Amino acid sequence: MDLQTFVKRLEGGKWEPAAALVYGEETLGVEEAASAILSALEKRGATRIVLGPKETDAAALGDALSQMSLFADRRVVLVEGVPPRAEGLSDLLERAAREPDLFLLVRHSGDVDKRLRWYKKMSAEGAVFRYEAVKEREMPDRIRARARLLGLDLPIEGAQAIASRVGTDLLTARNELEKLRLYASPRKKLTTEDVEAVVGRSRDTLLYEITEGISDRDRERSLADLQDLLRQGISAGAILILLAREVRFLLQARIALREDASIRPALGSYSAFTGFFRSRFTDERKDRFGKGRGNLFRQHPYVVFLRLGQAARFGEEELMSLLAAFSRADRAVKSGAGSSETVLFATVAAASAGGNA
Fold first, then answer.
1. What are phi and psi of 31, to 5 degrees?
2. What's 38's domain CATH number?
3. Residue 5: is its pLDDT beyond 60?
4. N or C: lower Cβ tally within 10 Å for the chain?
């Protein structure tokens, strides 16, 4: 049974099954699913009892129920978090099955041990809803979908910028969107400038801007963006590794452009490219450069679109020289040959001037 169907049953007064588990690594999904169940139960007059993970034994539940209002004819026990063993949950499940006015809801952020008796009982007799962690490449689309729920029109560039700041944390992304809604009101159509004003320029945006400065031979721009990146608290050594990854992405993109002449015409707009990418890039073709995070074509399509457009302004030999320069800089930092920030600035300055360090 899906969540929507289950909630409708509860709103209609059907408390069977009388127990539900909502859990997973995706905290926003867990929070919203549990809230929807609670809301449906409370609309039917249920009174909420909240127990912590260490309060699930029979004695604690008895104490909690005895303190309930005498006028509460329906009760929902909300268990916040699952302890490692959670033996008491089996007793709660049995009690919920016996008492028609009692409902058990377990909300847990993270995974649970499926070998335990209470979980097996919950799976067999209750409703279980799991929310798995969002993959990094899915985040921009999930953020745009969340923005639409708020009535906002968020461009893909803005969604990518937010994703770069929050990682795979949809809960934080929702909070950023709420701030954007207040900032832009009464406008509904957001811009990348709105995102930068509220969220700030993301790490990935700054990395992209640095490589743009390198391609344009604009040393001042590259170094200014590099300084902004350092102000975000990212170490010089980490930035060298990230820039090397960017150059590696650009080299993969440049090779793809050389091998397939049909890619360039598809770069006229992102909407045109998404259809092209979906239809022409099979899993086998995407894995041309491996299956890990170091493969450009396993990133979000917007990242692929940007890097392909950027790579067209570089030559393959130039990108290989840049990659070698960043590798030398990384070795220099690790060997203690100089201040990490000095090595970083010298490498980016030389690259932006058309040379290499």
1. -60, -45
2. 3.40.50.300
3. yes
4. N
On average, the pLDDT of the chain sits at: 88
Task: Kindly indicate the confidence band of residue 65, based on its pLDDT and cuts at 50, 70 and 90.
Answer: low
Paired sense of beta strands 19-24 and 47-51, if any: unpaired
Tokens of 85: 């063993």
Domain that holds residue 52: 3-131
* CATH number where 165 lies: 1.10.8.60
Question: Do residue 188 and residue 207 come from a single domain?
Answer: no
Handedness of CA 308, 310, 312, 316 (dihedral sign): negative
- pLDDT exceeds 50 at position 70: no
| Same-domain check for residues 153 and 184 | yes
Q: Is the peptide bond before 140 cis (omega within 30 degrees of 0)?
A: no
Cα(253)–Cα(257) distance, integer angstroms:
6
Q: From CA 357, how far away is CA 350, in angstroms rounded?
A: 6
Is residue 49 within 8 Å of residue 104, measured between CB atoms? no
Looking at the structure, tell me whether residues 314 and 188 fall in a common domain: no
Q: 53 and 177 share a domain?
A: no
**pLDDT given at position 62:** 62
What's the rounded Cα separation, in Å, for the pair 288 and 295?
8
CB of 175 closer than 8 Å to CB of 211: no
DSSP state of 266: G
Quick check: helix, strand or coil at residue 315?
Answer: coil
Kindly give, in sequence order, each residue whose CB lies less than 8 Å from that of residue 356, ignoring residues fewer than 6 positions away.
321, 322, 324, 325, 347, 350
DSSP bridge partners of 75? 47, 102
Is residue 299 domain-resident?
Answer: yes
CB 181 within 8 A of CB 150: yes
